[in-house]
Amino acid sequence: MDFSYISETFIKALAGIPVTLGIMIVSILISFFPALFLALGRIHKVKGVTGFSVVYLAFIRSTPPILLILFFTACFQV
Is the CA virtual torsion 13, 19, 23, 26 positive or negative? Predict the structure, then answer.
């Protein structure tokens, strides 16, 4: 086994941790407030929000993740 290659590759992989954490933090910040809005709308039974959240959750739960990725990338292409 080539331990020098393994150690170099491991160090390169560690260099990607800040990028991964940055993407994670941004995605949490982007998704937290819409999720909070939908949850509070369902709890307090706001008509428009409750209906939208029921339809949205049914769509998300019944669709395989790969189709969701394809759908949203197709929607937001420039």
Answer: positive
